[in-house]
Amino acid sequence: MTNVPGFNTVTIEEATERLIDYRGKTPPKTNSGVRLVTAKVVKGGQIHDEPAEYIAADFYDEWMRRGLPQKLDVLLTTEAPLGEVAILRDDVRIALAQRIILLRAKPGLLDPLYLFYALQSDFGQGELKARASGTTVLGIKQSELRKVRVPVFPLPVQQRIAGILSAYDELIENNQRRIRILEDMARSLYREWFVRFRYPGHESVPLVDSPLGQIPQGWECGRLDEVLVLQRGFDLPKDKREDGAVPIIAATGINGFHSVAKVKAPGVVTGRSGSIGTVLYVQEDFWPLNTALWVKEFPKSEPLFAYYLLSSLELKQFNSGAAVPTLNRNDVHGVQVVIPPRELQRRFQLNAGAMLKQAEILQRQTTNLRRTRDLLLPRLLSGQVNIIES
Question: Which residues span the domain enclosing 102?
Fold first, then answer.
């Protein structure tokens, strides 16, 4: 590879025309108003929707008196965690919390999107950590942040690098949007059929009284363990794991990979210890860890109906632990639920299952796109890949 001519470094002080820092100040929060961007929601190059926090709209101008965020400003977390980066892709009205610093690239010197990627590069992250302080929690002072260097190329080269990486991010964002739509469609179908009772052919089926209120004629009420049977997961210490593609599912998601599966897909998993309340639908053979509960049997249900039913139970209310949140399956098994006919569940499995299968394909594509982008980023930012100017 040929290094890009003109490779150099500049400091944050030199590269930015604005640096806005509200460190040491905490705004009064409200239930609605202007979105407050905190360090908790800046992750993986994005500003996530949850947890959502707000300040009062009539307090916004007073709080943001040091300057209002604008499109293509870069946000950087300074502590807990240090070094997460996001960029404002629209002119959106947001407030900044105390562990977020806003950086506005200096026109003619640094492309804003390029700055966004430069701070994510190995070089940029290394500079941040090298100037950080703290033993338990790493943080960086504003005076040290201003000295952080970023690699810099001629502006047209910066724009080409940013364009290449942005193309991947746009594809990733588009896939994520489609995944959310598909998941919302499947969830809405469940509510329509099994909560509102507006399933195909419902017009000719009367509602009848039951211990759980009115339900369609021919449906049942019963214990949850008549629908699904929960089982504790299996121990798998890290030193016993073998390289493979089988996902290891913990209380809140994938915890690694292994060469052997314990459970055939599709499966349903929820947290047993440490974290409870999250319910997962797993579409490939997997290994459930001992911190999780998995559905061992589906006596009167299809997997997708069982997944949405379990998700609707607000499992956190069954916490039986003091210091460590714990879910006792026996407490949940006795819950009374409505049980639809198996044939209707099969139709739901076919329809909603196709939506979630497409979402899974998109998720795999997204994983590959991220992997490719993450491989390209350090090569582009180090000058290993030659970007020819037109």
Answer: 8-152
Give me the residue label for tokens 């105390």.
Answer: 98
18 and 126 co-located in one domain:
yes
DSSP string, 232-273: E-B---GGG--SSSEEEE-SSSEEEEES--SBPSSEEEEE-B
Q: How many domains, the chain?
A: 3
CB atoms near residue 207 (< 10 Å):
13
Tokens 């399933």: give the residue.
Answer: 199
3-state helix, strand, coil in the chain (%, to 5): 35, 25, 40
pLDDT tens-digit readout, 157-206: 999 999 999 999 999 999 999 999 999 999 999 999 999 999 999 999 99
Looking up residue 128, the CATH number of its domain turns out to be 3.90.220.20
Number of continuous H segments (helices) and E segments (strands) in the chain: 10, 22
Q: Domain check: are 334 and 233 in the same one?
A: yes
Q: Are residues 232 and 326 in the same domain?
A: yes
Residues 361-379: pLDDT tens digits? 999 999 999 999 999 999 9
Whether residues 318 and 362 share a domain: the answer is: no
